[in-house]
C-alpha cells in the first residue's frame, strides 16, 4: 500500500535524566477500579491485538505503543486523561514498568503525546463529545475518534477528528493519512460474538486481520492449494485412463483388422486350391 503524507515520528525527547523523584507521592497512576463493560473490553482488545499482530507490516515502523485504559499525564501536576485506546508512535513500553515513573504514560517521560485516541461511548455521562474532546485538543493529540455504537451522543456511530490550530475539525472519513491507517465499521465475528465492530483498515477499506484470522486464512489457502492439487491429480489420472482406453480400443481394432485380413487370406488360399483341383480334373473353375 502506498501511503501519501505518512507520519515519520521524530525520536521523542526524553528529559535527561528522567527523574521520577519529581513525581509527588500523592500522584495516583492507577486506581484498579473496573470501569468497562463487555463490549468496550472486547473492542479494546480487538483493536490492540490486531495492530500488534501486524507490527512488522504497518505503514509506520516499530516501535509503537498501543494501549487501553492507561492514563495519559500531561505532567505530574494534572490529573490524567484515560482514553479507551491510544496509539503513540516511536515509543515503547518502558523496561522498568513497575517503577512509579514508568507505570503509565507521562508525556514528559515519553517526550511526546499520542498521535491518536479512541473513546468508546457506553453512556451519556462520559463527555466524549465535549470535555474529553477539549482535553485531547489541548493536549495536542492529532486524531480523536468517538465510537458510539448505540448512538448515545448523536446519530453518528463513528466520528473522527483532526487537530487544526488547537481545536478539532470533523473528518469526512476515518482515514488518518499521517499514520497510513484508518478505522471502519465491520460486521462479523470476534471471539464467538457476531457484532458490528470497530476495526483498523487500510486506505482501500480492507480490514487488518488478527493473527488468528490470518492463520485461518492461511489454513483455507493451504486447503485450497491441496484441493487444487488433488483435482489436478484426479484430472491427470482420468486423462491417463482415457489414453489407456483409447490405446486398448486401437489395439483391439488393429487385432480385428488383422484377424479379418488373415481370414480373407485363408479364404483366398482355399479358393485357389479348389480352382487348381478343378483344373486338374479338366474343369473350368470360372464356369462352376
Description:
This protein is α+β, with helices and mostly antiparallel strands and 288 residues long. It is built from four helices and eleven strands; from the N terminus they run H-E-E-E-E-H-E-H-E-E-E-E-E-E-H. It has helices at residues 38-53, 107-110, 131-139, 211-280, and strands spanning 64-68, 72-73, 85-89, 105-106, 116-120, 143-147, 158-164, 167-170, 175-176, 181-190, 193-201. The protein has a six-stranded mixed β-sheet with strand order 1-3-5-6-7-8. A three-stranded antiparallel β-sheet has the order 9-10-11. The chain is rod-shaped and about 145 Å long. The termini are far apart.
Q: Work out the number of β strands.
A: 11
Counting helices, strands and paired strands, the structural category is: alpha+beta
Major sheet: size, sense and barrel closure?
Answer: 6 strands, mixed
Question: How large is the share of residues in beta strands?
Answer: 15-25%
Helix-strand topology string: HEEEEHEHEEEEEEH
Alpha carbon gyration radius: 40 Å
The percent range for helix content is: 25-40%
The N- to C-terminal Cα distance equals 98 Å
Summed over residues and divided by their number, the pLDDT gives a mean of 82
Number of helices, where a helix is a run of at least 4 consecutive DSSP H or I residues = 4
Strand order of the largest sheet: 1-3-5-6-7-8
Structural shape = rod-shaped
Unreliable stretches: 1-6
Amino acid at each position: 500500500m502506498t501511503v501519501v503524507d505518512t507520519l515519520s515520528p521524530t525520536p521523542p525527547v526524553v528529559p535527561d535524566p528522567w527523574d521520577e523523584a519529581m513525581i509527588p507521592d500523592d500522584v495516583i497512576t492507577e486506581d484498579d477500579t473496573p470501569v468497562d463493560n463487555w463490549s468496550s473490553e472486547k473492542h479494546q482488545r480487538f483493536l490492540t491485538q490486531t495492530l500488534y499482530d501486524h507490527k512488522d507490516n504497518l505503514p509506520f515502523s516499530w516501535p509503537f505503543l498501543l494501549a487501553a485504559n492507561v492514563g495519559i499525564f500531561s505532567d505530574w501536576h494534572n490529573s490524567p486523561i484515560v482514553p479507551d485506546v491510544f496509539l503513540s508512535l516511536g515509543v515503547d513500553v518502558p523496561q522498568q514498568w513497575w517503577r512509579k515513573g514508568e507505570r503509565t504514560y507521562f508525556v514528559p517521560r515519553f517526550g511526546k503525546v499520542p498521535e491518536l485516541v479512541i473513546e468508546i461511548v457506553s453512556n451519556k455521562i462520559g463527555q466524549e463529545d465535549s470535555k474529553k474532546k477539549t482535553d485531547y485538543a489541548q493536549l495536542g493529540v492529532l486524531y480523536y475518534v468517538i465510537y458510539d455504537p448505540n448512538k448515545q451522543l448523536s446519530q453518528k456511530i463513528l466520528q473522527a477528528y483532526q487537530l487544526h490550530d488547537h481545536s478539532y475539525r470533523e473528518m469526512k472519513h476515518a482515514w488518518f493519512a499521517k499514520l497510513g491507517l484508518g478505522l471502519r465499521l465491520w460486521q462479523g465475528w470476534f471471539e464467538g460474538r457476531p457484532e458490528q465492530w470497530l476495526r483498523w483498515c487500510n486506505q482501500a477499506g480492507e480490514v487488518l486481520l488478527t493473527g488468528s484470522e490470518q492463520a485461518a486464512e492461511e489454513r483455507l489457502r493451504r486447503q485450497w492449494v491441496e484441493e487444487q492439487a488433488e483435482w489436478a491429480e484426479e484430472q491427470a489420472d482420468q486423462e491417463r485412463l482415457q489414453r489407456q482406453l483409447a490405446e486398448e480400443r486401437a489395439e483391439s481394432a488393429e487385432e480385428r483388422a488383422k484377424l479379418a485380413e488373415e481370414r480373407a487370406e485363408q479364404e483366398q488360399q482355399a479358393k485357389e486350391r479348389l480352382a487348381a483341383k478343378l483344373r486338374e480334373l479338366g474343369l473350368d473353375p470360372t464356369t462352376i
